[in-house]
Write a structure and sequence with these properties.
251 residues; alpha/beta; 6-stranded mixed β-sheet; 4-stranded antiparallel β-sheet; 10 helices; 25% strand; globular; binds adenosine-5'-triphosphate; binds magnesium ion; ATP hydrolysis activity; ATP-binding; P-loop_NTPase
């Protein structure tokens, strides 16, 4: 087994047992543009972490760096998930190690039905939830199993994107703006599902412009500003601190 970094040596980390999922001193670039500037955070197993910040703060870039996408390029730092060094991996290996990224544009595959989108996710191991179980979690998807995925409503497409992540055996769900463009009643429905997923022990990192909704859901929060962490604490602390929200979230 790989040894984990001793975070207790670093001032930014409390001298506690290493977390289930840790991002340590992550730096990433798009070409010459230095975007992720030394990001640190820990997530405990089964926890929901809200990753917040203004437009352009580096939230999407951080998620992409964690999922080991080709860009931004990580040139320093470590990412550990359940004793596995994601920073040494390519995107497909990180996916096999348990990272499930649901990107902002949802990436439903055109020309495929709902069911085919889910089957495609299960074409290679490690397979997660059965399609039947996913339809129990999202009955709307079961009703529309034969419909082309891209013709679903925005909320249904978000459900399909989350279902497709769960169709693989994931340890951490990374959600980029899952509530974007959705009516409050649909946000309620997706939120209920995320609470259910948490109860089943899956760890979630949620990036959301709708920071209040994300904070009400999350256990803890980190706030990014120009690629650096400026707050790390309980979600309730952010909800209770109007000055902090005004400064970094403009709400
Ligand atoms: N492919 C890219 N090439 C160059 N710069 C990029 C690229 N993608 C993002 N950036 C820049 O990186 C910075 C952070 O962008 P990122 O998308 O991570 O922000 P974000 O916090 O997700 O913002 P938003 O809330 O608007 O989604 C921005 O200044 C953005 O212009
Ligand atoms: Mg973004």
């Amino acid at each position: 087994m790989n040894t984990r970094p001793d975070f207790s040596k670093h001032a930014n980390h409390a001298a506690t047992a290493p977390a289930y999922f840790s991002v340590w001193d992550l730096h990433a670039y798009y070409g010459e543009s230095y975007i992720v500037q030394g990001v640190n955070f820990n997530v405990h197993e089964g926890e929901i972490l809200a990753l917040l910040g203004r437009n352009g703060a580096g939230k999407t870039s951080t998620l992409r760096a964690i999922a080991r996408m080709d860009s931004p390029q990580v040139n320093h730092g470590e990412i550990w998930l359940d004793h596995q060094p994601l920073h040494t991996m390519r995107a497909h290996q990180a996916a096999m190690a348990g990272i499930g990224l649901v990107p902002e544009d949802r990436c439903i595959i055109p020309g495929l039905t709902v069911e085919e989108n889910l089957q495609l996710a299960q074409i290679a191991p490690p397979v997660g939830w059965s399609i039947q179980r996913l339809y129990e979690l999202f009955p709307r998807l079961g009703e529309r199993r034969k419909q082309e995925g891209v013709t679903l409503s925005g909320g249904e497409q978000q459900m399909l994107a989350i279902a497709r992540a769960l169709a693989r055996d994931i340890k951490v769900l990374l959600l980029d703006e899952p509530y974007e463009g959705l009516a409050p009643v649909i946000v309620d429905e997706i939120e209920k599902t995320l609470i259910h997923i948490k109860e089943l022990g899956i760890t979630t990192v949620i990036v959301e412009q709708n920071a209040i909704r994300a904070l009400e859901l999350a256990d803890r929060a980190v706030i990014l500003d120009t690629g650096q962490i400026v707050f790390d604490g309980l979600a309730s602390e952010v909800l209770d601190d109007a000055a902090l929200r005004a400064e970094y979230l403009a709400i």
